[in-house]
Structure formats: structure tokens, C-alpha cells
Protein: Transport protein
Organism: Bombilactobacillus mellis
Amino acid sequence: MHKRQLSLSLYLNYFIHGIGLIILTQNMKALGQHWQTPLATVSYVISGIGIGRLLAYFILGNLSDYWGRKFFVNLGMISYFIFFVGMAFVTNIQMAYFLAILAGIANSALDSGTYTTFIEMGSKQGSANILLKAFMSAGEFLLPLFIAVLEKQQLWYGWSFMLAAGLLIINFILLNRQTFPPRNQENTAARTANLQISPWKKALASVSLAGYGYTSMALMILYTQWISLFVTHTFGFNAILSHWLLSLYSMGSISGVLIIFVLLKNNLSENKLVIALNLFSFLALLVICYSPNALLSMIAAFVFGFTAAGGVMQIGLNLFIKLYPHIKGRITGLYFTFGSLASFSIPIITGWLSKQSISYTLRFDLLISLMGLLLVCITVWAIQVPTTITSTRQQINKIDGRIIKLLNQRFSTVTTINNLKEEQQLPIFDESRETQILQEIAQKSKIPDHTPYLQKIYQAIMLNSRAYQTKLHQEENK
């Protein structure tokens, strides 16, 4: 299995998926003219995507545990291909609605096969799930630019659909050359941790995470739908500023994805991160809802995008999957089903609230944010595993992995040093240099009791570095 090649194919799918999420809304006017229907009818067709997700997520997630991840990634690609090609030519509204439902099914199939695959690739691949959102955002960013070019050149709107279909064909060939990891492998560390969680705490965490699937999606949907109207109506912000708050949210989201990916890649605790992100998203939203200051609102909009839409929903899924490593697909389907329920219910709820007052809409998002924060706090408390020799040794193993990686880099650099010494005819042993290193260790060590032991470790490292250089020297002189 080539992890890098498989990862690239899976990421490319989500770039295409990002296109699929907005391609109908970006082509609403052209589709309305092609179908000879009002925009309200086009909007009705778009709603079919949500119906498709709601119908398919839990079913496909369950089946992926039995039929395999690759099958469902392929199913998602084929379904999206039919959607893109069909929607470019269809003239019948009923058929268009069916194709929109198929796009929702494609979304569900990709999620069921992809999120689980990244978890099954290895212990750090949970961070890779965060990066999927970055590729989706890239697709959502580039598609409007491509459509603008088509409109300016007065070209057929269907080329935007054909572009996505063409990328799918290429990626279908690339992906099917790859081998997927065995499904539903149970990580030994995860199994040990799960055994230490009482059944009732596990059940409490499960209910909380399912609820978080709803609140994390609802939080984003409500903000993007109502922020512009809210600040215009409540604080009198002009149209440019009101739309800028949405753009800053998007910029924060993309920044968040990249930074959170790096943090998780470097073993930052998902438990701590999910609480911190939800806390700061609540505080940022509090500022947006009650501060009439434009500068504060702009800063808060960026922070809210970073914390609420930068991958925190995917972290919630990672935590949920770790509780049930033997049914990853079912858990993924359940989690995103609750997200789909939010997509369906939030527009209805906020539509009713807006009739009372526009101010109620975004302030209702505060309540959702608070609920989300409460749910993740309950989850982290419930799944907290007491410190044991086994869990502490697992931490040591992770640290050792990083040390080995750095030592490999150090020995690669030693090779370069050896070559330079030979060119300049310098001896392998440099006493002043080694003395300097030991002095720097004493200065940099933050715990004095550790200093003499660190120095002994480095003396051993330097001794082996000299032995390595001697070996290189002997090999070159044979």
C-alpha cells in the first residue's frame, strides 16, 4: 500500500466534492434559463442534495464496514460522475431532482469510505481527515473563478460540470491502482483505553458526540446563512462590511484547517483541542452577536471561522471512531446523519425565528455553540482514561518516535560534516566543539536535575557520531 499516493487520490476526490457542493448554486441562473423555470424551482432541486445525504449516510456507513472502503469511495465517484454529466444536459426537473439526490448519496459514500480509510492508515492519520476540508475549500474557491471566466467568454455553462467529470475519470484510474488498508483494524492502544472506560461513560460520550455532530454542523450553517442580514439589521453595517464578515470567516476556516492539521500531526491532544476550539468559537460568536464595533466584529469573524469551521467537526468524528474502532463506517454514517439533520432543520428553525426578529437568528447560534461546548466537555470527561503504566509507556513510545526521526536527521547531517572535514583535512574528533555542545545543553536545560543525564546522553550520541564518521572514512579509503 502506497499511503502517499492513496492519500493524494482521496484528497483529489474532496477537491471535486468541494466543486459538487456549490456547482448548482453557482449555476442557478444558467440552469433556470436552460430548464425555463424560475430560480425558486432551481432552489427546490438543490434541496435534493440534503435529502440524498439524509437518506444515505447511516445506511452506507453501515455497509462500508462489511463491503469495504474502496467500494464506497468508487460508488461516490461514479455517483458524482453521473450527477455532473447528467446535470449538464438534463431538461426534466424530476430527473434533475433525482440527480441532486444522487449527489447527496455520492457525498455520503465518499465520507463513509474516506474518513474511515484515513483512520485505518495509521495512528496519525486522524489528522489527515482535517485536511480533507482544505481540499473541499479549494474546490469551492476555484469553481466560481472558472464559472466567471465561462460567463465572460460566453461559453457553455456545462463546461464547469465537464471539468469535474473529467477530473473524476482521471482520479478513478489513479485510485483503483491503489490498495486500501484492512478495514476495522483495532489499534491496541485504543482497545486498551476503551476497556478502561465504563459502559455508562462510553454511552454518555456516544450520545454527546452524536449530538455534537448536529451542533457543529448547525453552527456553521446558521452563521453562513444569516451573518450578513444580522449585522445589517442589528448594527446597521453596510453591505460591503456584512459580506466581508463572511469572507473573513472563510479565510479563518482555511487557516484553521492547516494549523489544526499541523497541531494534530505533532501529537497535540484532540481532547484539549476540541474543548479549546469550542470555547473560543463561543467567545468569538458572543462578540459578533453583541458588539457594534466593526473592527472587533471582523477579528471575531476570522476567529470564529478558524475555531468553528477549521476542522473541529472532523476532530469530533475522530474521537467517536476511537470509541468504536470495530465499526468505523457505522459511526461515520451516524455522526454525519446528525449533521444532515442540522442541514435540514436549521433553515426551518431560523426561518421561523426571523419572523419574530432577525436578531434572534444569529443569537440562537450562541445557544447552539454553548450546547456544543457542553457536549464536548461531557465527552472529554467521559472518555478520560486514568494514568497507567501502559498509557504512560505509550506516551514514551510517541516521544521515542520523534527522537529517532531527529537522530536520523542528525546522522544525515554528520555525513555532510564528515565530507567537509575530509575536504579541509580536519580530524574527526573536535574537542572544543563537543565541549561547546555540553555547555549549551547545560544552558538550555530547564530542569537542573536532568542536566547531567542529558549531557551523558549527548556524550553517547557524539561518541557514536565519531564512530559513524570513522566508518564512512574507512569505506571511502578502501
